[in-house]
Amino acid sequence: MLEYISTFHERVVKRWLFTTNHKRIGILYLFFGFFNGFLAILLSLVIRIELAFPGDQIMFENYQFYNVLVTMHGIIMLFIVIVPILFGGYGNYFVPILIGAPDMAFPRFNNFSFWLLPPATALAASSMFISDGVGAGWTMYPPLSAGDAHMGYSVDFMILGMHLAGLSSIVAAINFVCTIWFYKDEGRYLVHIPLFPWSILVTSFLLIAAIPVLAACITMLLADRNFGTRFFDPTGGGDLILYQHLFWFFGHPEVYVLIIPGFGVVSQIVSTFTQKKIFGQKAMIVCMLAIGLVGFVVWAHHMYTSGINTYTKAYFTTATMAIALPTGMKIFNWLCTMWGASIWFYTPMYFALGFIILFTFGGMTGIVLSNAAMDVSLHDTYYVVAHFHYVLSMGCGFAVFAGFYYWIPKMTGFHYPEKLGQTHFWLTFIGANLTFFPMHFLGVAGMPRRIPDYPEMYQKWNTVSSFGSFFSFFSILFFYYIVYRIFTDQRKAPRNPWLFIHQRDLLERLSLSAYYFNKSLALSAEANSGAFAKAEEAYKKGEYELFNDYIMKIDMLAAHKGRMRTYGFELWKSYMIYHKLVFNRFVIKAENIKVKSLEWTLPSPPPAHTFAIPVKSIIANYNFVNYRKGARLYRPYGKQNMLPLSAGICNYRLSFKARPHMNVNIYVNPKKSSVKIYGTKALQNMEQKEPFSDYGIKQSYTINSK
Hints:
Layout lengths: L1 H16 L4 H30 L11 H37 L7 H9 L1 H10 L27 H30 L11 H32 L13 H35 L6 H14 L15 H29 L8 H24 L1 H7 L3 H31 L5 H27 L14 H31 L13 H23 L3 H12 L3 H9 L3 H5 L6 H17 L22 H5 L13 H4 L4 E3 L31 E3 L12 H4 L22
Helix pairs in contact: 2-3, 2-4, 2-15, 3-5, 3-6, 3-7, 3-8, 3-13, 4-6, 5-6, 6-7, 7-8, 7-9, 8-10, 8-11, 8-13, 9-10, 10-11, 11-13, 11-14, 13-14, 14-15, 16-20, 17-18
């Protein structure tokens, strides 16, 4: 027993509870966030079951409990799911790595900031079971959250939980600012660090500025409830609207606290899977700073129906529309990054694209709601619910999943099942849209939010939305199944699972490989001119298969008999030199080539299908030439446009006819493409000697552009 306790203390308490390692703390954040996320989604499922049809389904007229579910769903999702995953989890794990720091600036503070969250969650969750629970909504507006409407200690417990969560966020934010500012690689300026650390830096400043305002706001509410103050009681000279101003001065930057780390994750993924630098790195940084700055001066667009005057409405309408400019610029920079690129479509890229599409749609409905005249009729309807769920559920949620699939091989050393990952994307994409898109119609029709019952005229879209929630819940279960498969299959991931070989690098490897191999053959040809004369004769007759046989055939029998100067032995010797000196350096493996057909490009169909964009794909199936009209198949050792790519890619076997080229079909349009296969810098500095020129065997080093 003592040995068991000692082992538990060593492996669990010291390694995890008291850890100051940024990676382990990041993993703790992720476990915590995903666990709470499942609970929050369960609450939302109960809400949608109640709303599936008019009348009571499972509440049995206990409508306070319905409000408690809505409140807890919002509080959990906003404070202890999205922030711990995107900001605490991915931030802690990868920010020090991406900026070249050994760890966070204050490792013990880092541990402290995490362990504030479990008691905060416990306080907030326990409020559900104290008195009748907190049914005031996540905003907790007085007088609904005041002592007359919510007697007991439920709201007080919620306030204390929010204080602890806010303190955790402030401590983590200060830690991130100091880490990025002082611990970054000395060889880089701030402008050169990746966009994900930048997003965490901007988010940290937002938290440091916004959380104290929330703390003051809910502290005054706590004092109103328990100490006889009248900050928000009009009968005692207080002002209800003051609470809204204070809360939303925190609340709107909080929205960007949630989404800006998602911007950083998507930027990392788009850059990786397009094999390009982000279009406009400095502009992306400026946009995040502008979003964070302007986010503090648009708070009253949540208060158009609270009695503010017309001039104030005009200002906040203009400012809210203005904040769409840097957000839209980020969208277009992502699109410009993908424009003309060969995109590697893996699960993280699917989720990143889903983020861009759905967040853009949510942003467009935000432009509608920013107009004060429109918002008067749409305020507190399901149109608002649809808007912020498109921004948060599909924005932050898709960023969470994109980051998970992108970084889980690095965190665990195991790769996820790709087919299951893409299946999870489509389940999530369909389920989320089925759930929230019908809410736009309900909102325009006038259905108010936060009600457990409704007239029959709203049934159709509510039923569709509830069905979508079941679909989404199944996608969450499927996600946890994928996590289970990751740890049971234990398919080892390479050191960098997303290290794709670029077309230029692949062509250079193939070119150098073929060059060195043919050069070694040319050296042996000096002593075996007779054998090469046979190869030359076969080539002139157009018998290319026989030509390949002559070149690669190994006469092992001659070597065994001691005829060391024979043609076969010389070829065998040159082949071994190739393998030892060249093959190990310019190795082409199946992992280097990850596509089987046409590359996917963003501009489709006209540019991608008409070669307005230079060709990027070098791997294609045999039907590809029919798909792209005007393309020509370049056959190795053909009479025209010969393209000897590589030699000895596979180990030599006597059982099949080895050929001195890789079985790769390259399709380009010679009329419109300016791609030079042998035009790399490495080969430009080489001696452009044609190895078989003495024997009539010509090679083409560039594609004929005529």
